[in-house]
Write a structure and sequence with these properties.
By secondary structure, the protein is mainly α. It is about 50% helix and about 5% strand. The protein has helices at about 10-20, 65-75, 90-100, 105-115, 125-130, 165-175, 190-200, 210-215, 220-235, 235-250, 255-265, 285, 305-315, 340-360, 365-380, 395-410, 415-420; strands spanning about 75-80, 120, 145, 155. The longest helix is centred in the last third of the chain and has 22 residues, at about 340-360. It is globular, with a radius of gyration of 22 Å.
Amino acid sequence: MIMKSTNRLCASLLACIWLLHPVTQLDLHAQEAEGQNSMAKARVKPQELTKKIGSAVAWETDYATALEKSNATGKPIFWYVPSVPGTFMDRKEEVNRYMLAGPFSWPSIVQLINQNCIPLKAVPKTALAKQFHIRVYDFIEPGFLVVQPNEEVLLLANRMTTLHPQWIFKVLAKALNVSSRWEDYSGNKSSLEMDAWKKVIASNWQLDANQLADMLKSPSMEIKLLAGMVAFRMGRHDEARSIWQESSASHPDHPLAWKAAAEAQNAGPFCRGFEVFDALPDSAISAIDLKNVTSAALPNTFSEDELWKRSVNYLLSMQDANGGFFDSDYDFGGADSLPNVYTAVTSLVGLALMEAERQATNVGEKKRLRASIDRIVSFVSNDAHLNFVDRDEILWGQAYRIRLLDASHSQYADPKVSDALQK
């Protein structure tokens, strides 16, 4: 959850986060593929388990039916709006998958909704869209509402660019006036899962091989999912996908197994950079206007130092071991242009992290940032990571890597960088 900052340098860093439009990683050697300068798109074809994401919620699909049940039971409608009529959203199905594999896969949220609401997943028809102001520009997907039996709106949330499961749970609990905690709804009577999360968060997602191996021995699907997340945050993306694939196959009836399957396919919100788990201050919930909820943090939720810390951790957690950032699917010029997009985005992240290094005062933090920057410089200097045949995005791949190499040459005076820049 990120708030606006008036500080120019911090805003520069945060801007790069918004440039990371998550999706599928393709073969970097796209110049060897067929159909150069084609308009072929990069789209995930969900596997069988991935298709089940979100299905643990007992969805109704018709508003009138949901309203009838709401009046009969006295329970409000929880209305998930996957799309707005006439929307300009280009990635409607991808955004929908992030919600289904995100908040609607976590057992605590699933149980909170199923027990306290009449769940509804439906695109509103014209009259309903007008009644509830679910219209283009007024309501930007993904979002949801909580509607009383008398059709009074208790909660309206949209523009959900950051999915934080515990935050969403707390917002819903506040709207429903439910005092239960996340762990009360988890369905796990032991503390194994909660202890695992505490250990991971305390380590800043950095565990050694033995700790990770112990997590994988657990019978808990949630802990296995978390193990894959740890591997991903440590830059071992291929290992993370293998963990998710194997664990989902061994727990095929668990909602988090369906989530793991989606993450393994690069179709889930975690690997795409939309789902985070940072600790939240009470002010992130207490001051929320339930009639106008977005995932942007309210002013003064975080200090500038905290924004820097969270932003840097976010960017570093999305970096692949080879130095690149692959969570973008900016394929308007065709999927063959994606290597150039990856190079451009990776260069932009490098510029942001160089600014962070100049700001940093802690020696350990400077070392951590420099190691990441060095991998970025090596990645963008490698011509094999671009597609020179493609003519749609090659300008950006070249222009932004030149900017990064120039800045790196000025800041570090590395002869290898100078040679790459000259080339």
